[in-house]
Structure formats: structure tokens, C-alpha cells
What does this fold into?
Amino acid sequence: MQLSDKNIISDMRTAYGKTLVELGSKDPNIVCVGADTTDSLKTKLFGDKFPNRLYNVGIAEANLVSIAAGLAIAGKVVFASTYAAFLPGRCLDQIRNTICYPFLNVKLVVSHAGLTVGPDGASHQQIEDISTMRTIPNMRVLVPSDSIAVKNLIPLLSYTPGPFFMRLARPSNSNIYEDNFEQFDIGKCNVIRDGSDITLIACGLMVSKAIDAAQTLEKEYAVSCRVIDMYSIKPIDVDLVYHAAVDTGAIVTIEEHSIIGGLGSAVCEVTAENHPVPVNRMGIGDIFGESARETEIESLLSKYGLSSDHIIESVLKSRKRIKK
Amino acid sequence: MALKMRYLELNRKVRDVRMLAIQGIAEAGSGHPGASFSAAEIMGVLYFHKMKHKPSDPLWEGRDYFVNSKAHSAPGFYAALATAGYIDTKEIKTLRKLGSRLQGHPVMYSERQKNHSFPGIEYSGGSEGIGLSVSIGIALAKKRDGQKNRVYTLIGDGESNEGQIWEAAMAASKFKLDNLVAILDRNKIQQDGFTEEIMPLDPVRDKWAAFNWNVVEVNGHKIEQIIDALSRVEKVEDKPSIIIANTTKGKGIKHMANNPQWHGKAPPKKHVPILLEELQSEILIAPSIIAGEPENYEEKVRRAERAGADLIHLDIMDGKFVPTTSFFADTIKHLRKISSIPFDAHLMIEKPINHVKEYIDAGCDIITVHVEACNESEFVKINKMLLKAGISPGIAINPGTKFPSWIIEHLDNIDVMIIMSVNPGFAGQKFIPEALDKMAEVVKTLKSNNYKGFIEADGGIDATTLQQVFDAGARIMVAGNAVYGSPDINSNIIQLRHKANVAIETKLLELATINDMRSDWIKSRKNMLIPLAKELSIEEDLHAIK
It folds into this structure.
């Protein structure tokens, strides 16, 4: 695994915008639709380069995804983007009936998912999207953990027919992967580090927290953690989850999402059917979040149970549970 | 302007759409007859006349797109696609059944959905208020690529409660989508009741104009008005257009019309034969403008159209084939400018082969020549010219003429047969009763030869004779003095319509009685039969129901 050892900070949205520009130069069929957030989502980079291939429909998410559907019907590869709070938050029906049912070539790439959107508060903290998107037939759900993952996954989205949902986080973060790392595929995951005592399965910004926790657990508690970046939640890598259950006997899932219906649930579905082991689902409990200034984001995550320390605690509890 | 639509054939196909749709709904035991019927003319005009499309090559790149946003009109939509040739008409009977390609609400065709859809369905509907946005996407893509494809979208008035319709309204004008035409099926009824009570939409015209759309309003059951509007909006640049089609929900089946209860209900299967008969019993009233006071023709056309006439009958008399002279092509050319109502030209002239082009150019929609004025080879030449020009061909026969057998060969290319019930030549003649026998006899011959066109009764048709010629098979009624003989044209047409209703109801009642469901039928149509109780002699039946 080529992990980044330098502390390179980058943001997923810029990676998204730049990758779109590259793809757009190669494929004239790619178009973008935005909803008054093209600057924030960085699809404006695409629009600056290809002015007549970015359509801004204003603050109208239902219209956004339905116009995207029409463009796809007419043969375009369409990237539709805005904030996760409103896409899918405000247009589930259109995504279901107008994009997924006819299996249209629409790629929903949204940002500002989870608690880390910060000061805007719970109205803007989308924590149900993985759950809702996962249940719709034909939809695929991706949650990249850094800008390298974004850079590699966006071309896959554009070449693979049919609908996708990809959620990005607002804050910049340290790259997990080396710049030239390219090992990403739909329905796969990356084993970031091997381990034998327990498996941490995380997605998005929580992957780096899992890595931090695993390092501490090894050093201070002599617990060997396997860490998996589960960037493809649907389809999920059933084999790797199964082997994690068989090899390590316990799993902890970590996601910046409700514990209902997201990554944790997806992992439990695999283990329950194939090799039941204890799975501790870490995420946001069945509650809404709250505002926090950007300097307080770590405290916000911690308040809702999403810090490295919480992961360590959870792992140690899980270990005890197995021993009993 | 001439509409080049072969009006009567289009009219007949729309009737076929309604007939297929009601069979499908009855067979399924559920579905939406109301919306299927209010939009039948709109879909008919699009699929049988306006849109560029190829049923044999549904994915042809040059095609125009139809997005059926009010997708609960699915039975009518499937029936239109079947009539256009996308699927076998027999497949309608699988509607809404397990394993059918005709899903309750249509799904866009794709390899993945090949068991639940068929090529020709461009859009997956069912959730209201979305199709217009999807159409914007298609129109944007086509415009960006410099393609000429046009996008037609059918939206509903109930559907217009959805906020997304208005998001789309803003976006389409922002993007200056002059390749997009929305058609609003304004039937004023939604599931819970009347639109203006559930969620008022008026002033709907002003609303769309305020969103910077080009707005045209038409009677959505008048084929010619829809066609005329569609042609006009094509010339508008840098703006999307909407055609507000004022319609009647359930149009075609009287007890369903304007009745919210029939929004989404299937008729009992046993009623189907009677419903099909009703759809085939529609009567077109064709006022003949040479009748009445010799006032100006323009005024007569306008007044008849306002009073709801279906066609304008134009008697062309040359003073040779018949003793009198009326008017010629130049008059028609002039009248054509004032109205889009179909012109039913009846050429009572010698050697029509030499003149028919003048009448084509003048803008007639139906042109009928006399069997007495041409032989078979001349008729064939005339027929070819008419079909090529998109005009409904007709043939007329005088009371004393024997039905020539050569006509049988050409029935597929004859949209109307005028059976004269007077000897042509003068307005205001008395109906010849023997003409009824002749009509019945000709109709019998035609039916046995699978004739699909119309029978037109011409001569002495009024409130006293209408029912007789209807029973003999006539569905187009030329009315001269009965319309223009007294000043109140509006009342005269209403009176004829009333007589037409009585004639139709009598026939349907007979059919119901034969099929042993008289009281059941009267019960289902009670509200509209009550005013006709005396004329239909059903007072006792109605009393028994109470």
C-alpha cells in the first residue's frame, strides 16, 4: 500500500473540479449541472474551461437532478453537484424515479457531508445520505477518503454507465494515499494496514482517524488492527469484509453519518449473512448535530463520539466482549 | 392556412386511441381514463402528425422527443404509441398486469428495462412535476449540439401544484429553449376534485407569461387548433412556448366527462362494448355556409366556429354539374385566413380533375368529388393528389346514382363518403326519405368491405331527420338551414347537438338492453340521462333506480 508519508493537505472538491476539467478535455460529452454552488463545489473550474457545458439552475435541487436526467437521456455524461444537505436531502424522489429507475448516466457528486460542514449547524449536516442512496436500486455509493481517491474515482464514474452518488467532505485533510496511487475500483476497498486482532472499517474523513487509532492501539495496547478504507459502500467488497470477520473476529465501523443505514449497517449485512462477529458501529447516534466554528470541528466530532480516542475505547471494549 | 393533416384520418386515429385506452383500462381493472381522454387529441396530433419520429426506428437520432410528464395518462399514451405502430395494438390488453411492458406508469426504455418498457418511451414518469425539468435537459443537450430535435412535454394542471414545475418554468426561459414546447392539459380536475378548489391555478395564462414563456391557448379537443398552435410556436425564437389546451377530463365517454370520480377508476368490463359504441358515435356538425340569408361568408364561418361547429361545409357549385353557382377557390382562400376550423369542400362541379388543385391550394382540409363527375382513373388521380397534399379525400353520391363497385378498391384511401339526401343544386331542399334506405344499403356494403372512414349526410338534415341518418350510419351532419335558417346560430347548433345526444343515447340504451344491462347502464349514466328522460322514455327506469 502506497500511503502518503508526507503531510500533504488537500481538499476533495478541488480534486473533483480539476479532474472534471481533465476529463472534459478528453470527452466532449461530459457536462455539469450546478445549483448556485458551482464556486464552492469547484465545478466552476469546469465551467470556466467549457462555458457552454456547465448549467447553473439556481437554488433548485429537484430541477438540478431532473435536468441532469434530461441531459443524460439526450446522451450526455452528467455530473450534478451541490451540497449534500439538499442533494439528496431535497430531491430523493427525483433521484429515485428519474435517475435510478431508468438507469441514467447521472453522477451525483455532493460536498459538505457529515458534521464537518461545521458552523452552519444541523440543517446543513447531512448524515442520512449513505443510507437513503444505498437503498435505491441501481444506485452506487462512493465515499472517498482524500483527494487522491477522488482523482481516481471520478474517471471511473464517468466511464461506468449508470447512476452514482459520491459524497465529499468540506474540510481539507491530509492525503492518505501517495500522489501516484491508483488502486481504486468500484466495489473494492483498500486495506490500509493489516492486523490480526480486530478490523477498523472506515470511510471518508474517518479513515485517518482509524489509522491514528490503530497506531496508538498497537503501540500502547499491543492490539493489532486491520484498517480498511471502504470507499465503495455500494457495491461493497463482500470478500474483504468476510475475511476481516474470519481473520480478526471483531469489527468496528467508523463513519461521519448516522449509525442507521450507513457503512456500519452495510458491513453488518455482510457479516450477519456470512460470518457473524461483533460489529461496533461508530457514527452519529440517532440525533441531530449542531454548529461549531471551524476551529472547533475536532471538538464537535469528539462531542458526537467520532475521535481517535473514541475509536480506541470502542476497540478495547470490543476486545473485552470477545474474550467474555 | 391549410393544415395538411388529413383531418378525418387524424380524427379517426384519435378515436382509436380512446377505444384502445378504455379496453386496456377495463381489462386491467384500474388506470386513469380521465387523463387519457383529455389528452387524446394532444397525443394524437403529436404522434400522428406533428412529431418527427419513426416507429420502425424508435431511437432514430433525428426524432423529436415526447416527455409525458403527467404519466398517469399512460393508457392513452400507450394507445397512441400502439396506433402509431410502436407496438401491436393487442398488447394494450396486458396493461398493468404482471410481466407487462405496459407498466402502470411508463418507464423509459433501456436494455435493463426491456421487460418493462419498449422502444419509444423516452421518460420514466409517475412522480408528478418532474417531466418539464427533464425536457429542459434534453432540449439543452440538443441545442448545445446544434441539433434540430424538438421536445414536446405534456403537463397536467393538477401536476402544476408541484413547485418543480415553476423551477422548470424559470430555467427554460433562462436557457431560451425555443426547441421546447410544453402542452398543459387544462382539464380542471385532479384526484380530490376541481383544481380551482384544491389549489387554484388561474390565472394560468398570466402565470406562464410572467415566467417569460410564449403562451398560446386552444381548445384541446380541436385537432386543428392544436396543430395551428404547434406551427405558430415553432416560429418563436429565444423563448420556450406553452400551449394551454383547455380540455374536458374523460372527454368521449359522457358519464366520465368532467367527473372527478373518474380520475383513476376503471369501467366494468361488461360496459366496454357500449363504451366503444359511444366513442364511434361521435357526431361532427358541419354547417353549410351557402344556406340562409346571403350575408357574408366570413361572418357565417366565425359564428359557426364560436358556436362549436366541427367543420365548415363548403358547397362548390359551378352552374354546370348542378344548375346553380355558389363560390370558388378564391373565396375559400380568403376564408382560410380567418379560421383554422377544418374546411369540408364538396365539389359539385364538372371535371373536378381539372380544378382540384385550386381547392388544395385554397386550404381545404377535406375535398369530396362526385362519383357522377369522374371515372375511376380520374378519381385515382385526384385521390393521389389529395393524399400527397395531406388532405382527406371524399367521394359523394347522388340519390339516384347506383353505388359504383369500383369504389370498393379504393376504400382505404377514402376518408368520407357523402350520401346525398337531396339532389344537389340548391340550399334549403327537403330531405328525401328514400335516401335512408340507400344510406343503410351503402353502409352495409362499406362495412362488409371494412371501410373505416366517415359517412356524411348532406341534404335536409335538421332536428327531425338527424336521428334517422345517424341510425343509418352517418356521423358527419351537413346542416344548412338548420344552422343558418334562423338568426340564432348558437341555439341552432345547440339544438342539433341535443338531437345528436338523444340519437346517441337511444342507440347506447338499445345496446345495453340487448346485452341485458339496461338498468346497470342507466344507473352509471343517471346524472346525464335525467334531462333526457322523457325523450328516451326512461322515466320508469330512473324511478326504479331511486
The interface with chain A takes residues 65, 67, 107-108, 110, 112-113, 122-127, 129-130, 133-142, 144, 163-164, 167-168, 170-171, 174-175 of chain B (CB under 8 Å). Chain B has a mean pLDDT of 95. The first strand of chain B starts at residue 65 and ends at 68.
